[in-house]
Specification:
Blueprint (H helix, E strand, L loop, with lengths): L1 H23 L35 E4 L13 E5 L8 E6 L5 E4 L10 E5 L5 E3 L7 E2 L15
Parallel strand pairs: 1-7
Antiparallel strand pairs: 1-4, 2-3, 2-5, 5-6
Length: 151
């Protein structure tokens, strides 16, 4: 009976580890008009991290609001540049979905820092004036800096 219990326990542990690893590697990328995302205003990467409960470990994620920072803005585009004000090369392009969220599990190399730029569906453009070395946008925006916004 002990052998069976030990083997059953070992099998359960192996299955959980495999599920956790495959969940971390799941592809999860925002798309225009998609409305399956959730938890607006929270740090997405509290759950969408290696070993986290969210589907896929995000490389970059956040939310977009209007200029009053009260209503979501949908279907914009976030680009990460190697230089300030849209200069240099684009290292990542992420679509803002129909809920105002943007996220990607695609690998992003933040080495040397990247400069975010967000463009609204109406053509409004905002550049972040300094570089970032990680993609946890809501760990600062809406906490100790303004939310990400567009007109």
């Amino acid at each position: 009976m002990k052998k069976f219990t030990y083997k059953a326990l070992l099998l359960i542990i192996v299955v959980l580890l495999i599920q956790s690893c495959s969940r971390d590697k799941a592809t999860n990328i925002s798309a225009y008009n998609d409305t399956e995302s959730h938890n607006m205003g929270q740090n997405c990467m509290n759950c969408h991290k290696p070993g986290g409960k969210g589907k896929g470990a995000f490389q970059a994620a956040g939310n977009v609001y209007d200029s009053l920072q009260t209503t979501i803005r949908t279907n914009g585009t976030v680009k990460l540049y190697t230089g300030s004000n849209g200069s240099g090369s684009v290292k990542a392009t992420i679509q803002v979905d129909g809920n105002g969220n943007f996220f990607t599990t695609e690998t992003i190399d933040f080495t040397g820092g990247l400069y975010p730029c967000i463009t609204g569906s109406n053509g409004d453009v905002h550049y972040m004036p300094y570089s970032i070395s990680m993609g946890q946008c809501n760990s600062c925006h809406g906490v100790n800096t303004n939310k990400i916004w567009l007109k």
